Amino acid sequence: MQYDPIKKKLGVFFNRTPAFRKLFYRLLDTLLLRSWHIRKALRQIEKENTLPLKVLDAGSGFGQYDYYMARRHSDWLIKGVDIKPEQIADCNTFFHKIGLKNTSFAEADLTTFSEKEAYDLILCVDVMEHIEEDEKVLRNFYQSLKKDGMLLISTPSDQGGSDVHHHEHDEGGEHSFIDEHVRDGYGISEITDKLKRAGFSKTKVYYQYGPSGNMGWKLSMKYPIIMLNASHLFYIILPFYYLLTFPFVLILNALDLKGPHKTGTGLIAKAWR
To answer: Which of 207, 187, 193 is nearest to 258 (CA)?
Structure first.
């Protein structure tokens, strides 16, 4: 299933004006359950840190988390990096237009990126599942954190996070719902071990996207993506679809946020240097 082309089209549509871009961020924050979990974690970090933080958003994409942090904390210094130059140029242009001067964006490959002991917090959302050399990236994160600095990761789990399903005609017999993933997801022990090998001594890993969250994801993301891949006509139908499903998505996301979950299709990993 091609996910990136749809994201790109939506990004182009909502990038027409700064007001549209802000609406896009609001929609992402509301519909994407991972955003609920990341913002909850960031609020906890805010409570525990009274001094300004230097933050790296590793794989910043559209820049929605940078926008969230920059608006709440004018004294934080935030840097977003992404491997896609068009995303970097787009974010730099938008943030300049709206006057958020505490945030900058730069092109970078996370397998080679390292700024020794530069950051208090590294945020990495839906990125690790796209990178084959993940342990090299984790080591780079460790080296880039200050003492007692924190790494916050959101990624699919091996409990069906990439929605792997069987296809009779596929050579391998299994196929990820999102083709861009290089792995189907992490187990808690697997990512914990990789974090420890990277140098992190203190870790906390737990499931997100439990039963309610997984159903919310299907309503808010999976089914719309299937429809949009089937026909461009669904771009017209999509607003009406969300009018019907939106209340249910809100309830399911709120239930998932309460946790904890014995299993789930997503993981939150926290690690401290």
So the answer is: 207
Burial 150-172 (b: 16+ CB within 10 A, else e): bbbbbbbbbbbbbbbeeeeeeee
Number of domains in the chain: 1
Give the helix ranges, DSSP H, for the chain: 4-14, 18-31, 33-48, 64-72, 85-98, 134-144, 188-198, 211-217, 223-230, 234-258
86: in domain: yes
Q: 228-239: per-residue pLDDT in tens?
A: 888 878 888 988
Range of the domain at 81: 34-209+260-272
Domain at 117, CATH number: 3.40.50.150
Helices 33-48, 18-31: crossing angle, 10 deg rounding: 90
Q: pLDDT tens for residues 44-86?
A: 999 998 899 999 999 999 999 999 999 999 999 999 999 999 9
